[in-house]
Structure formats: C-alpha cells, structure tokens
C-alpha cells in the first residue's frame, strides 16, 4: 500500500502536528530529568567524584538546552502553553 500525496491534502498538517508533539515530549522529558532525577545532590557527586566527566556533562547539558530553546521558536501557542504548564510547580494545600 502506498500513500498518494496528491489526494491527501492534510498530510503536511499531520507531519507538523507529529513534529510538535515530539518536541513537546522531548522538552517535558528534559525538564523531568533536570528538575527531579539530576538534582543538585547528584550534580555535586559528579563534580566531586567524576570531575573529568563533569566538564563533558556540562557541555552536553548546554548543547541540549540550546537545541530545546531553538526548537521551541517554531512551536505555536498551544504546545508552548502545555510545556509551560508542565514546568510549573504545583502546591496543593
């Protein structure tokens, strides 16, 4: 079975939506990793015990942060809103 691109008008929209969804998931994953799993204590332990790996880790973190920032420019308002809401810290009383 092959897709006939001439008959399927919404193909580009589906690609853009899928791309936006992947970008949202990557940024939410990045936030989860850096806010909860790779916390200050873990960063301290890496700096203390693995100082040679710390330089590489900082470089990779900065590169990924720049990639996320640049890719976020292309997102529309709704995906940006979802990402911002995901990053909020909720306090329930």
Rg over CA atoms, rounded to whole Å, is 19 Å
Largest sheet: none
The general outline is elongated
Tally of alpha and pi helices: 4
Hey, roughly how much beta strand do the residues contain? under 5%
- Report how far apart the termini are: 55 Å
Helix content: over 70%
Give a count of the beta strands, DSSP E runs of length 2 or more. 0
Low-confidence stretches: none
What is the topological layout?
Layout: H1 11-37, H2 40-49, H3 51-72, H4 77-87
Brief write-up:
By secondary structure, the protein is an all-alpha fold.
Question: What would your notes on this structure say?
Answer:
The structure is a single chain. Helix content is 75%, strand content 0%. It has 93 residues and is mainly α. It has a domain at 17-81. Helix 1 runs parallel beside helix 4 (77-87) and helix 2 (40-49) crosses helix 3. It is elongated and about 60 Å long. The protein starts with 10 loop residues before the first helix and ends in a 6-residue tail after the last helix. 2% of the residues are buried.
Describe this protein with a few key phrases:
93 residues; 75% helix; 0% strand; mainly alpha
């Amino acid at each position: 079975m092959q897709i006939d691109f001439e008959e399927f008008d919404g193909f580009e929209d589906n690609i853009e939506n899928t791309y936006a969804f992947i970008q949202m998931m990557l940024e939410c994953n990045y936030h989860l990793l850096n806010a909860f799993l790779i916390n200050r204590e873990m960063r301290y332990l890496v700096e203390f015990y693995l100082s040679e790996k710390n330089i590489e880790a900082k470089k990779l973190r900065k590169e990924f942060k720049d990639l996320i920032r640049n890719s976020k420019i292309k997102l529309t308002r709704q995906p940006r809103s979802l990402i911002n809401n995901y990053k909020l810290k909720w306090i329930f009383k």
